[in-house]
Design brief:
The complex is a heterodimer of chains A (190) and B (91). Chain A has 190 residues and is of the alpha/beta class. In chain A, 39% of the residues lie in helices and 16% in strands. A 6-stranded parallel beta sheet of chain A has the order 1-2-3-4-5-6. In chain A, helix 1 runs parallel beside helix 3. The relative contact order of chain A is 0.11. Chain B is globular. Chain B is built from 5 helices and 4 strands. Chain B has 91 residues and is of the alpha+beta class. The chains are: A alpha/beta (190), B alpha+beta (91). The interface between A and B is large, with 58 and 57 residues.
Amino acid sequence: MLLPFASLNPNAHPDPAGKFEVYVKESEAKGLKLHPSYQFFYPNEPRLYPLYGKAQELGVPVIFHIGSSIFKGTRLKYCDPIYLDDLAVDFPDLKIVMAHSGRGFWYDQCFSLSRLHKNVYMDVTGLPPLNLLSYFPDLEKNREKVIFGSDWPTMPGSIGKNVEAIKSLPLSDRAIEAILYRNAHRILFE
Amino acid sequence: MEMIDFHTHYVNREMLNPTWLNFLEAINPQFYSKIDDYGKRPDLFAAYLKTQGVKYAVVLAECAPATSGNIPTEKVIEYCRDTRCSCRSPH
């Protein structure tokens, strides 16, 4: 089953919260994807708080692109994960997902934020699976907060190959199952 | 083991900026040769996911024309329409 996530550019929509509510209630969008470094906004800007409040009210997750990018014009300063700390504090029931988990710049910070806040998750999309434990040596300790994503089709090989790579990591069975299914299930359906 | 892929992209040749298209062609030529088919047929993507053991896949819109491209939410919703789960819990 395919689960659609909406995306909005906060700089282009006059009422992002209202628009997002329509997407969720009338079109059954299951969440929101935001790209601070592509859309040029800081996540903790107060003007975005109605949007986050709406997502929290609707019980749907918000994914933020947090990490490096190949695209020209990207402005990395906007996707520093520290800006999500304010959101986690001000919206304690909002499910906040860090796509790419700080790729290239902020692995430790993303790990720490996810450990600190019950509502902040690490999506390891776009990170070579076999390198995960070098980026996050204590991944096992945070196993309930890590989510698998493939970045399909912008990835080499198959989804299955990436999954097998994760399964080959020296992690507990419980961690593997949580990363590949249970954590995402909780975010999406509970 | 059932799996959820929390991060996939709906791609359409006309909606992606050249950098993304070029990167896609280089990194996943097998998909790139069928990009138009996948863009029109969500059943192809759903069938592929099934072969990979994926039960649910999040499909992302992208609203960033200045960098990556513009993949409207409406297009993603339409793409997922025939295969999406409207239930709160699948169990």
